[in-house]
Amino acid sequence: xxxxxxxxGLVQAGGSLNLSCAASGRFFSINDMGWYRQGPGKQRxxxxxxxNNNRIKSPxxxxxxxxxxxxxxxxxxxxxxxxxxxxxxxxYYCTADVAVLPGMVRDYWGQGTLVTVSS
Length: 119
Known about the structure:
This protein has no helices and eleven strands. By secondary structure, it is mainly beta.
């Protein structure tokens, strides 16, 4: 199973970016999908996750600005980021809990995509 993320880049504060991540390979199903980030000199932190029933979890720091969605047909997860702030600058990683076989769930991570927000 591989996760391929794309969509990062350089944007000015107040701007928007949309990240995409697609899972490929052989697997039975995908449970939770989501995004984490790691800023310069910081630990990796949760951005937001979405379950296969579309239940969403996210910290207050991104609520109202970031929107997660998924396409179960395309095995993809998306992150629409609006009103970006310099403190959002980080490498963003997509993640997925994948059932490679029924009852055998493993956690997979994408390669990371850099988001830089200039002030």
